[in-house]
Design brief:
This protein is an alpha/beta fold. The chain has a single domain (10-297), classed as TIM Barrel, CATH 3.20.20.70. It is built from twelve helices and eight strands. The chain binds coenzyme A and zinc ion.
Length: 312
Amino acid sequence: MKNGNGTRLHINEVATRDGFQMESRFIPTDDKVALIDRLGGLGYAKIEVTSFTSAKAIPALRDGEEVMHRIARRPGVVYTALVPNVRGAERALESRIDEFNIVMSVSETHNLSNLRMTREQSFAQLADVVALAKQAGVPVNVSLSCVFGCPMEGEVPVPSVLGWIERFAALGVQGVTLCDTTGMAYPIQVQALCERVIAAWPALDWTAHFHNTRGMGLANTVAAVEAGIRRLDMSLGGIGGCPYAPGATGNVATEDVVHMLQCMGYETAMDLDGLIAAAAELALLVAHELPSQVSRSGHRLTRHAPPAHRRN
Ligand code: COA
Ligand code: ZN
C-alpha cells in the first residue's frame, strides 16, 4: 500500500440521487435544495443532484426539475444527473444540467429489471442521448452498472464489460463510471479491471462507484486509487442503492472514504468536519441511523476524556 503523497482525487457526491432513490420517505424538495447547497461548499468536484427517470420507477426523485432550478450553482462544482433515455435527456437539458450521467447495466437481467429495456435497446437510446448532448455542448459520462458482478446473473464476463466500454468510447463519451451496484467487487478484481481499462482508454475520465454491501467498499476504494482511478463516487452517510437490484445497500460513505484518504496523504479538497456536520443533518432528514462510521466516531484523533474511574 502506498502513501498518497498529495495525489489529487476528485470526490463526487451521490447521496441526493443514489441515496434518496432508496429512501422510503419522500425527502421534501426544500430539504433536498438546502442539503445540496450546503454540500456545494464542502469541496466536491461533482454533485449528482437527481435523476431524470420515470416518476413511477423512482418516485423519490420526481421533483428533479424543481431541485435543479432552485439550487445555487457554485462555480467549480459540476452538477450532474442520471439520465436513462432520450426523455430524461430532454428534461435534463431543460434543467440546464452541467453533464449527462447516462446509465445502463452490463448485465442483461439487471438492465431489464432496472430500465425495462434490453441492453441493445438501452444502447440505442443512449446513442441518441449522446448525439443530443453533442448538439447542446453538454459532456457525457456513462455509468455502467454491475461491472463487478450481477446479483441475478453472478459473474459478468470481463470481455463483455470491455465490449460495452468500447462501444461507448466509440460514441465519444468523456467519462466512464465503473459501478459495483450491489457490493460484489473485491480488491484484486477492482485493481485488475481498473488497471486494464485505464491502460486501454487512457483519454477517458474514469470513476469508481462502490457500494459497501459486503464491507469491502473502503478496501476496493484503495485498490481503485492505487490502480490509477482519480474520481470516486460516494454517498454522505452511506445511504443509497438501486431499488431494482435485489440485496442492494448503501454506497461507501463520503465521510468514511474522505477520512481514510486524508489519513493516507491524498488531496481530496474536502472539508471533513463539514461532512460530519452535514451527515448529522442528513440523519434527521432520512429519519434513521446512517450506516457510516466516521460521522459517529469522529476523526481518528478525536480526543476523549478517560473513563470516570480514572479521573479521581
Ligand atoms: N422521465 C420521466 N418520465 C418518463 C421518462 C423519463 N426519463 N421516460 C419515460 N417516462 C414516462 C413515459 O412518459 C410514460 O409515462 P405515462 O405512463 O404517463 O405515459 C412512462 O414513463 C412509461 O414510459 P416507457 O417508455 O414505457 O418506460 P418504461 O416503463 O419502459 O420505463 C424507464 C423505462 C427507463 C423510463 C424506467 O424504467 C426508469 O425510469 N428507470 C430508472 C431506474 C433507476 O433510476 N434506477 C436506479 C438507478 S441505477
Ligand atoms: Zn450506486
